[in-house]
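Marked as duplicate of an earlier ticket. Keeping the data here for the record.
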Amino acid sequence: MIFALAHSGRVVFAAAGVMVAVFLTFALSGPLPPKEMGLVLGVAVLPDAALVRLVLLPVLLRLTGRAAWHAPAWLDRVLPKIGFSHR
C-alpha cells in the first residue's frame, strides 16, 4: 500500500493541481456562470484528490481486502470476459 501511494500519489496530486489551475482560470473569465463554476470546481477538486483519492480510498481498500475486488455473480455473467496475454 505504501509503495503504491508513493508512486501514484504524486501523479494523482499533480493531475489534481493541473485541474485546479484550469478550473481557476475560468474564475478569471468574464461572465458570472463560468466564474462560479470555475471557483466551485477548483475548490472541490483539491480536497477530493487529497482526502478521497490519497487517504480514504487506500484505507477502505485495506480494510475490505479481497472483498473490494469481488464482483457479484449476476454482474460477472453480464460483463464481457477479457483476457490479457502476450501470445
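See parent ticket for discussion. The chain has a mean pLDDT of 84.
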